[in-house]
Amino acid sequence: MERMKQHNAEDIASPKRTKELLQRHGLVLKKSLGQNFLVDPNILHKIVSAAELDAGKGVLEIGPGIGALTQQLAKLAGRVVAIEIDQRLLPLLQETLEGYSHASVIHGDVLKVELRPLFEEYFASVSGVSVVANLPYYITTPIIMKLLEEKLPLDNIVVMIQKEVADRMSAKPGGKDYGSLSIAVQYYCEPEIVTIVPHTVFVPQPNVDSAVIKLKVRKQPPVQLEDEAFFFEVVQASFVQRRKTIYNNLASRFFTKETKAQLEPILQQAGIEPSRRGETLSIQEYAELSRALAEALARS
Ligand SMILES: C[S@@+](CC[C@H](N)C(=O)[O-])C[C@H]1O[C@@H](n2cnc3c(N)ncnc32)[C@H](O)[C@@H]1O
């Protein structure tokens, strides 16, 4: 409660305030850094409430921009850390986050920052951490994969991303959106699209449709794997050529012309018809398949 009374920066999420701030600081936004700033309080509210924050929780924000989302996060969470690559925005963030002493801005490239030590330094005393961000779209997938593969202690990830990527992350087997990204994300998380976002809520407006997605991080993966890296290798290989059968994709990756006859019984052992395509297999089926394939390759 104290914290809420302390801050003296004004909320900035409106086209007028955003443009005025940028102008006053002489800033021209960089398309190359994915700088499309959110100017709609309703969307900010939807993002923040999906993260289920409270004063005991910590938040990592990626790309605070001029701080519109950061302000709302700081009103609810006990600790906010925001990583921003564009040094020009730092003085502006100092102004918009004035009085939010529990919010820190780190200048850096999120793909290069070591997150584990950062978590130890900033989030040692919180009861849970969320990642909440309006992501720079040119690196959406590498950011999400970095967060998941590093197995950071996260409750959830609530991010604004391209709608097309949100559809791929949340796709179920059987459709054109389902692929290695769906499987990787769903191995670590339970995805849920929170809302679809029109491009009019950004300054400047992006060319693509957007969506807010919530990735609830699983305590346990949905399948038990002996060799996680090999499971993901099998998944990748199965989608190399989407129109090819699982048999053909796996034969090209793991066998030679002479040895590929071994593959059919392996697929059958895993209960998978060789004529199926990679996009029809569930995570459980990929787990069975990678197990059977690893055993067979170890024997040969
Ligand atoms: C879509 S804008 C979001 C800005 C703000 N959070 C908002 O919602 O209005 C993306 C932000 O990410 C920053 N950014 C781009 N690449 C980055 C990187 N590799 N590491 C950290 N921040 C990055 C940009 O400078 C920009 O501020």
Output the keywords.
two-stranded antiparallel ribbon; Helicase, Ruva Protein, domain 3; 13 helices; 16S rRNA (adenine(1518)-N(6)/adenine(1519)-N(6))-dimethyltransferase activity; 17% strand; rRNA_adenine_dimethylase; 300 residues; 2 domains; alpha/beta
Report how far the terminal alpha carbons are from each other. 65 Å
H/I helix tally: 13
Listing every helix as H and every strand as E from the N terminus to the C terminus, the arrangement reads: HHEHEHEHEHEHEHHEEEHHHH
What's the CATH architecture name of the largest domain? 3-Layer(aba) Sandwich
What is the level 1 CATH name of the largest domain?
Alpha Beta
Biggest pleated sheet: 7 strands, mixed
Averaging pLDDT over every residue, what do you get? 95
Low-confidence stretches are 1-5
Question: Which strand order spans the largest sheet, edge to edge or round the barrel?
Answer: 4-3-2-5-6-9-7
Keywords: Cytoplasm, Methyltransferase, RNA-binding, rRNA processing, S-adenosyl-L-methionine, Transferase
Protein name: Ribosomal RNA small subunit methyltransferase A
Domain Ribosomal RNA adenine methylase transferase N-terminal: 43-219
Family: Belongs to the class I-like SAM-binding methyltransferase superfamily. rRNA adenine N(6)-methyltransferase family. RsmA subfamily.
Account of the protein in words:
Its main location: cytoplasm. The protein has 300 residues and is an alpha/beta fold. It has 2 domains: 2-217, Vaccinia Virus protein VP39 (Rossmann fold); 228-299, rRNA adenine dimethylase, C-terminal domain (Helicase, Ruva Protein, domain 3, Orthogonal Bundle), CATH 1.10.8.100. It is 40% helix and 17% strand. It has helices at residues 2-6, 15-24, 41-50, 68-76, 90-96, 115-122, 140-149, 163-170, 180-188, 228-238, 246-254, 263-269, 283-299; strands at 37-38, 58-62, 79-84, 103-107, 129-134, 156-162, 189-197, 202-203, 210-217. A 7-stranded mixed beta sheet has the order 4-3-2-5-6-9-7. It has a two-stranded antiparallel sheet with strand order 1-8. The protein is elongated.
